[in-house]
Amino acid sequence: MFTFQAPPYLFHNDLDISDAQVSQFTPIYYSKRFSAIRDSEQNPLHYENRVVLEAGDIVLHLVAEQGRVARVEIARVWDTLYYEDGSPIGAVLVSPEEDQLNNYYIFTKIDATGEEKSYFCNCNTLDQKQIHRHTELLSRKHTVGKIWLPEKDSTQPSQLSNTTPYPNQISDEYLHHAVVHYARQGNPACLFAAAFWFREQGKTQQAIHGLQKAAEKHFPFAWLELGFEYHEDGILGSHPDKAVTCFRQAAYGGLPLANYQLALAHIDGIGTEQSDTLALSHMQKAKDGGILAANLALALYYRNGSFNHLRPPSSPYRTLTPHEVDYNQAAQLFFQAASAPWYNAPIAAYYLAECYRTGSGVLMDKEYARELYRQAATTGNLLHEEIQTAAYYNGDVERLTQIAEDEPFAAYLVGRMYWFGEFAPKNYEIAKRYLKIAANSGHSCAEEASQLLQNSRDHWRI
């Protein structure tokens, strides 16, 4: 994760820093100085079946990373939090055995009177949409609860007859028992969880069956996974049109990663019509939904004026009329993608460095660009060409040399460094060796490497 102290953007009014009022994560303790309330009759937090959440609820938690379920866990609702006006903040989830509350952070909100109020939550605070998609009530200490009636804007008491007994000890065994219990009753979230476990165990047929059953009950994550099964040439085979159908159902269910996959399909017309307009719309929805890959894809789109960076070299759509570039928008998106903790943050940092080196969308700052190149080079995967270029600007000749035999672009960069004396002493023999590797490859750098070798006599005065 990069912690940038960025020079100012050219157009300050265009900045949208959504968490500008959020403090750093610090342990705090609940006190009356915070404005959060724990109950609301006007818009209570509720599960998909409209049962109102209560503190102490034991829930199935589908933990997603960048839009895709990565883990199936059990959690306890510590409490529900609301703003002073009764609108929901979210449900705070903790591990079942956790009693103390730490790692909360404070944020502020301006109320209707213009007064700034302080609230708090933790990193596992789920909003209403996330509660619907990511949780399922498994057990409650008592069987009396409330049902939310949106048509009446009110709640009414209800007897809960379909929860498992509250466990004396919460364990993985209990979680599996409860999930199987509800899956047999056709609960879509538990069908999905069971399918997830089957896939982890290598029981692919059972996993697919569970996903299909959950999808029949309109569970968005099941549609998403079926889309990947058709898309990735899994047990269901490669069927781009079926993959698009599944991703579209998942997108209808509100999953932004599905929008990202639909954008990729529209970019090259795979399984659906080719349309940069639809691709841009879906990519924007994915970005708004927190998919960082969409931030990076959009940044490159605004930088280059096309989606060609996502198209294969043989794509017939690479010749489409380019869109007008927007360097300012690109720089902001690169900044967002580089500042977040995800696997391609170093690549985004490289492109942000390019912005500062050339003054594209930001005030030119070559010193800051060098710092970004350094961070990208030292934290990124050197097999990516963006990271190789960052390593070049960082003078990492030794690291590039280590991979140059197998990576033609790295070989070209090493050859350049010894050819021109960039971050390394001039050495014709070493330069020639690595430039030949690049020149004899099918890489796009081969032509320039060959040109350097052809001009060697004049350059080196041999």
UniProtKB/TrEMBL annotation:
Pfam families xrefs: Sel1
Q: Which InterPro entries match?
A: Sel1-like, Sel1_AlgK, TPR-like_helical_dom_sf
Family annotation (PANTHER family)? ERAD-ASSOCIATED E3 UBIQUITIN-PROTEIN LIGASE COMPONENT HRD3, SEL-1-LIKE PROTEIN
* This protein's name: Sel1 repeat
